[in-house]
Structures are given as structure tokens and as C-alpha cells.
Amino acid sequence: MPIPALVPLGEAARLSGRHPETLKEMAEAGQVFAFFVSGHYYFDPGRLPDRPPLPEELRGELPELMTAQEVARLFRVHPKTVTSWARQGRLPYIRTLGGHRRYVAEDVHKLLGQQDIHGQQGNGEP
After folding, report:
1. Considering the domain 65-113, what is its CATH architecture?
2. pLDDT tens digits, residue range 79-107?
3. How many CB atoms lie within 10 A of CB 78?
4. What are the sequence ranges of the domains in the chain?
5. How does pLDDT run across 19-51, given as a tens digit for each residue?
6. Span of the secretion signal (predicted)?
7. Following CA atoms 54, 59, 61, 66 in sequence, which dihedral angle do they give, to the nearest 10 degrees?
8. C-alpha span between 31 and 72 (Å, rounded)
9. How far apart are CA 96 and CA 104, in angstroms?
């Protein structure tokens, strides 16, 4: 019988859409199959629980998000410039749970398509 490829707790949490502490509790209660070796949990990805359904208010189409690096490539500027625009309020953004800025692609393309952005043209700033 082949040995399954096991994944650590963090990867199992990402795959199952659950918080790592929740997976630990489920493993300890016998609800999820896991190995506990040298103080670490390891899971068989094929035996992880299904992802929980999205709450009703989050169902539907979510906007495409872009990183500062992706926005910078479009505008041909440094990613720090994009961050500066966001801090100045020139480019709307949202924060991820990890605290990173993400930009809605529709807003970025709208800004990119403007002929004269805030009265400045051709100098790399919006």
C-alpha cells in the first residue's frame, strides 16, 4: 500500500479553507485524519474536510484583485510608487487579512485609461 504524501498544518489549512487551530481541534477530536509527529501535525490532502460554504453575502462574483507589482508593470513605475499613490488616495485599495494592499482591476484599468490623470501626463505619476 503506497504511503500518502502528507502536508503540514499550514498547507492543510489553505487547502481546506479552515483556520489551523480549527484543524488541530478537529484532529484531536478524531474528526479529521492527521499524524502528530515531533510536535507537528501532518495531514493527508485527500482526506481533508470539504471547504465550508461562503456566507450568503459573499456569494456571487468577486472582483479581480491585483498586487502592487502587477499595477506597477501596467503603469511602468516602481511598486513603491503604486503604494504611494494608494496612501495619497489616488488609487483605491483594500487590505488582505495579512495586511497587504490589493487593487481592484477595474479601478486600475479605469485609471490607466484616463488621458489626463490629475492634470499630469507623461511623467510616470497618475
Report:
1. Orthogonal Bundle (1.10)
2. 999 999 999 998 999 998 888 999 999 99
3. 13
4. 7-47, 65-113
5. 999 999 999 999 998 999 999 999 998 889 888
6. none
7. -40
8. 45
9. 12
